[in-house]
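Hi everyone,

Forwarding the result from last night's run.
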Amino acid sequence: MEVHLNLEIQTKLSRIAAARGSDPEMLAREVIERFVDYDDWFIREVEKGLAAADRGEFLTHEEVATRIEKRLAEKSRS
């Protein structure tokens, strides 16, 4: 597989790779792997959420607000 990038992206990729002590091809592979893994995870999580909603498993607005308030209170204590 070949991926063609415009000059601006190639330049940025080279600069970032050099700063990380890597080369552009290795960095491009790493970035693509991360994106594909994340996208795969995200799609699975959305499908889980949709399935839960189809089963009637969801939080009310009030339950969401309570969870948010609890987390904010916990965060402010730390």
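Residues 25-77 form one domain.

Cheers,
N.
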